[in-house]
């Protein structure tokens, strides 16, 4: 604490991301990164963009990247917003669509950054408890509110809400903005983007960090009605005229265009997730039905915090959340087959 | 306007950056970009960073870049904050140190993004008029306030306030944060960074966009007391865990290290500025005494808006601000000698 801090800053409890350790080489299954490298075409595009043009500001409107995303997703360019990672897109969305004094709703177990954004912008919220099986209860989101946000698939449970239920929530809250955070949707879920033409209150947020192996490049985007997108652009232009550098613009566009590579790598991750689940069950774990690039697992007899630490000791990093309801779970990112085999081998030694 | 917009968004009037035209090739003297390419070492570092490591998140604390900046500037690492362009650093500073209901002070003529940040965060402000020669009046900043910000050299005047005056403002406002925006200081001014050990309320903000020819990479930074820097990091970690991508981290560090290149290119710009001024005066312009990488010029008989349009017509882009007190000025970025000769040739044809 410092006497010069603003009132808002004094109240803030920042989000804590998963660790990026440098002490030794780990099998890194703690921050839901993709185990496969980015598209070689994206890397080549980045190298090509690394030249004297860097002296010039990037395109402030991200016009070309928006165009590529729109083509790829079958939407209009004015339905696309681009930001410096989906965290930035989320932050702008809270500022753009939610008001202090009108509590928004999100699940009690979800991305733990949402309450931090609320603190930052002075927005009140109420949490809706997941049911006993960690499903998001649709009825909970049919009450009076100032806006709604949830992740689908949800984090860290990995559970996916079917599109009919998503649509019900969007439709029944037509006067409020409903934000669906689809960071993990490309690993088996279905995107709500097909609903944006129908519902002017629906905003879908995605990222290249997971499914396009570009966590290190920081590109997120939002899809929705042109009115919502204009709002996001106005917030962005009141914060930073140029949020995405020339290199990231070039690499992201090429990664999006390389659909064959995207399909291949996401299929590999889904394949790995499918065999990892039963293997973990054999070892005494109970798993949620995850459609994300991670599994969420609780062991019948062994304490999760103990397992987290023991795995770390043996060179395998996973994520443990010391929070009510989920403090006996581990979130384990899906790595390569080889990494998962090694992880299971280590677990066998521990159990 | 859209019915889903928040109250804050409805009130926002976004900042409008200088145009980045694509219709034809211009001599581009409108957004204060550096005419020289970035350090070849920086470009090489970027190419080297373009590999499979992009699948991993960047260092959330920007540890290595902070270390390089600290070494280069002779400060401690905990006195350095890094952001996605100095606009982002400015935005975080407004959130971190200024409060609604406690009006901050800035000059009536300065970077026009400051009032936009105030709108975004609901912060009130009072403007202090520059004197008739466009100097920032020190006494104006010795009244009750909720914080102070100004650019030094100021924009778009280019005028520099001597460090003794800066120190007086900082010292007399020891209970408030004073932010000095030094985007242009490397072209002949003196940085207030040497005062940060002495004054816990001083924050100095700089950028690689101008003096390091890296507008396209988006790197800004702030220097100040560790308590202020911790505050900025907390705001950043409540907004976006990873604001700077791996490529930008690598390129920026190398650009900072290449001090020889930096010294060479900034000396060239200062040299060009020195001969351009008298040439413009010969053509009937009156100039402020700019220590920035631009000149601010008003013609004795010809209208600035006319000149702006006529120059554009002839392939030379400069910046015109249709604002009280400065609507008969042109802000002309210092380009290469060749570009400035061409600009003067075109002006001679027009006058």
Automatic annotation (TrEMBL), chains A, B:
EC number(s) on file: 2.6.1.9
UniProt xrefs under InterPro entries: Aminotransferase_I/II_large (IPR004839), HisP_aminotrans (IPR005861), HistidinolP_aminotransfase (IPR050106), PyrdxlP-dep_Trfase (IPR015424), PyrdxlP-dep_Trfase_major (IPR015421), PyrdxlP-dep_Trfase_small (IPR015422)
Family: Belongs to the class-II pyridoxal-phosphate-dependent aminotransferase family. Histidinol-phosphate aminotransferase subfamily.
Subunit structure: Homodimer.
Protein name per its UniProtKB record: Histidinol-phosphate aminotransferase
Reactions it catalyzes: L-histidinol phosphate + 2-oxoglutarate = 3-(imidazol-4-yl)-2-oxopropyl phosphate + L-glutamate
Matches recorded under CDD domains: AAT_like
Keyword check for Metal-binding: no
Keywords: Amino-acid biosynthesis, Aminotransferase, Histidine biosynthesis, Pyridoxal phosphate, Transferase
Aminotransferase class I/classII large domain segment(s): 25-346
Any GO BP: L-histidine biosynthetic process
Organism name: Clostridium thermosuccinogenes
């Amino acid at each position: 604490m410092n006497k010069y801090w603003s009132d808002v800053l004094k109240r803030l409890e920042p989000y804590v991301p998963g660790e990026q350790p440098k002490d030794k080489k780990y099998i890194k299954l703690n921050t839901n990164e993709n185990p496969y490298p980015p598209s070689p075409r994206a890397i080549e595009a980045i190298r090509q963009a690394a030249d004297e043009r860097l002296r010039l500001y990037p395109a402030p409107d991200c016009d070309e990247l928006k165009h590529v995303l729109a083509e790829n997703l079958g939407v209009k360019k004015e339905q696309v917003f681009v930001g410096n990672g989906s965290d930035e897109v989320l932050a702008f969305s809270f500022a753009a669509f939610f008001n202090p004094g009108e509590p928004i709703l999100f699940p009690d177990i979800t991305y733990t950054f949402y309450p931090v954004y609320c603190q930052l912008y002075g927005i009140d919220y109420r949490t809706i408890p997941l049911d006993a099986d960690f499903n998001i209860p649709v009825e909970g989101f049919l009450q009076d509110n100032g806006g709604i946000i949830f992740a689908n698939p949800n984090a860290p449970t990995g559970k996916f809400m079917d599109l009919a239920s998503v649509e019900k929530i969007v439709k029944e809250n037509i006067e409020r903005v409903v934000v669906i955070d689809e960071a993990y949707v490309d690993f088996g879920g279905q995107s709500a983007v097909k609903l944006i033409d129908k519902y002017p209150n629906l905003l879908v947020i995605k990222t290249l960090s997971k499914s396009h192996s570009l966590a290190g490049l920081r590109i997120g985007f939002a899809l929705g009605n042109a009115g919502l997108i204009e709002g996001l652009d106005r917030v962005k232009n009141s914060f930073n005229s140029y949020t995405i550098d020339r290199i990231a613009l070039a690499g992201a566009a090429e990664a999006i265009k390389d659909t064959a590579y995207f399909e291949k790598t996401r299929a590999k991750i889904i394949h790995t997730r499918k065999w990892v689940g039963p293997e973990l069950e054999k070892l005494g774990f109970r798993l949620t039905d995850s459609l994300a690039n991670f599994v969420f697992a609780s062991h019948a007899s062994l304490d999760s915090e103990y397992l987290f630490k023991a795995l770390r000791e043996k060179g395998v990093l996973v994520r443990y959340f010391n929070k009510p309801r989920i403090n006996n779970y581990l979130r384990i990112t899906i790595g390569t087959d080889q990494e998962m085999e090694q992880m299971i081998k280590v677990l066998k030694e521990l159990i």
